[in-house]
């Protein structure tokens, strides 16, 4: 097994594999670093590639997650298995050569990106159910309850030329809540949102959250520098209509209450979303109402990141 070393904000990863393709995937996610820069408790990821085929189209439809007290496991029976040791900080994975060739984005998410995010969210980061779009002046965090229009707004921003740090999950540094990092850098949306945004030809089949969706493959042009940003502002999504899109100032307690409306249980698996809300309240943070006015909402994002 060869070994490579990668730096992530405030942490490090030691990767071992018997296949150079795994290191190439990792290099699209994280910066390579020198072994002497690693701490003793760096995240350990070990990926074994074995001969074998590919499970066919849409392998994520066959992906099964199991969550235990000490270990998470993701598997596509006969083709992939990833075990994440929550206490040990170690990931042990096995994948067929055929899957690695035919579905590199899926392989990167399941073997590397998601396991690292699980462990980082128990170390130096808190994970949030939020999106984040990036302009020249930093990132705007977009948070809201299910159905609030978060993914549609993030996709509209991508179409307008914004970088995407997150769609569904975002890592926030515990030491500095304005330091943001990608968790699983993925952009999926429902077919009706794809049609609304005229993204035909720019997406591919996806299956997430138990339903068929469309995916913009961000991994194809992934680079480590696109996975970190500083927060420029936070928007909590309010009522989608009526328009026009507009910012609403919230008091501290109002902001914290609205922030909690976007919470999912996983945020508290070792994290502290309340600390993030407290750090952001009153600090370039607003409620965005009328986001069905996508052109107006994107214009607001442009102003906040100028």
* Structural class category: alpha+beta
Helix content: 10-25%
Distance between the termini: 46 Å
Proportion of beta-strand residues: 35-45%
The best one-word shape is: globular
* Total beta strand runs: 20
H-E string: EEHEEEEEEHHEEEHEEEEHEEEEHHEH
Work out the count of structural domains: 2
Task: Report on this structure.
With about 300 residues, the chain is α+β, with helices and mostly antiparallel strands. The protein folds into 2 domains: about 1-120, no CATH class; about 125-305, 3-Layer(aba) Sandwich (Rossmann fold), CATH 3.40.50. The chain contains 8 helices and 20 strands. Strands 9, 10, 11, 12, 13, 14, 18, 19 and 20 form a 9-stranded mixed β-sheet that branches. The chain is globular, with a radius of gyration of 19 Å.
Question: Could you name the key traits of this structure?
Answer:
306 residues, alpha+beta, Rossmann fold, 2 domains, 9-stranded mixed beta sheet, 8-stranded mixed beta sheet
Summarize the structure.
The chain has helices at 20-27, 97-102, 104-120, 150-159, 191-196, 252-260, 273-280, 294-304; strands at residues 2-8, 11-17, 31-32, 43-50, 64-67, 71-76, 80-85, 90-96, 125-129, 131-135, 138-143, 163-166, 169-173, 179-182, 187-189, 204-208, 211-216, 228-237, 246-248, 285-289. It has 306 residues and is of the alpha+beta class.
Write the layout of secondary structure elements.
Blueprint: E1 2-8, E2 11-17, H1 20-27, E3 31-32, E4 43-50, E5 64-67, E6 71-76, E7 80-85, E8 90-96, H2 97-102, H3 104-120, E9 125-129, E10 131-135, E11 138-143, H4 150-159, E12 163-166, E13 169-173, E14 179-182, E15 187-189, H5 191-196, E16 204-208, E17 211-216, E18 228-237, E19 246-248, H6 252-260, H7 273-280, E20 285-289, H8 294-304
Parallel strand pairs: 2-4, 4-8, 11-18, 18-20
Antiparallel strand pairs: 1-2, 1-3, 5-6, 6-7, 7-8, 9-13, 10-11, 10-12, 13-14, 14-18, 15-17, 16-17, 19-20
Helix pairs in contact: 6-7
């Amino acid at each position: 097994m060869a070994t490579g070393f990668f730096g992530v904000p405030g942490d490090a990863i030691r990767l071992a594999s018997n296949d150079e393709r795994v290191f190439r995937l990792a290099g699209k996610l994280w910066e390579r670093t020198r072994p002497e820069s690693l701490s003793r408790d760096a995240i350990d990821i070990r990926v074994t590639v074995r001969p074998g085929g590919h499970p066919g189209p849409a392998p994520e439809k066959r992906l099964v997650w199991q969550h235990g007290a000490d270990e998470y496991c993701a598997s596509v029976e006969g083709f992939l298995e990833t075990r994440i040791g929550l206490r040990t900080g170690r990931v042990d994975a096995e994948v067929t050569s055929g899957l690695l060739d035919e579905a590199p984005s899926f392989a990167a998410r399941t073997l590397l990106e998601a396991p690292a995010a699980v462990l980082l969210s128990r170390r130096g980061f808190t994970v949030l159910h939020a999106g984040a779009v990036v302009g020249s002046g930093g990132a705007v965090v977009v948070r809201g309850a299910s159905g609030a229009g978060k993914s549609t707004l993030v996709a509209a921003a991508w179409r307008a030329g914004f970088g995407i740090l997150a769609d569904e999950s975002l890592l926030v540094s515990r030491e500095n809540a304005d330091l943001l990092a990608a968790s699983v850098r993925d952009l999926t949306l429902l077919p009706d949102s794809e049609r609304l945004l005229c993204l035909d030809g720019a997406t591919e089949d996806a299956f997430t959250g138990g339903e068929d969706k469309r995916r913009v493959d961000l991994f194809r042009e992934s680079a480590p520098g696109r996975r970190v940003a500083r927060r420029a502002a936070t928007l909590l999504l309010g009522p989608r209509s009526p328009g026009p899109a507009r910012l609403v100032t919230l008091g501290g307690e109002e902001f914290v209450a609205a922030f909690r409306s976007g919470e999912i249980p996983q945020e508290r698996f070792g994290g502290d979303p309340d600390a993030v809300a407290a750090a952001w309240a009153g600090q370039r943070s607003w409620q965005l109402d009328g986001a069905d006015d996508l052109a107006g909402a994107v214009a607001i994002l442009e102003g906040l990141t100028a």
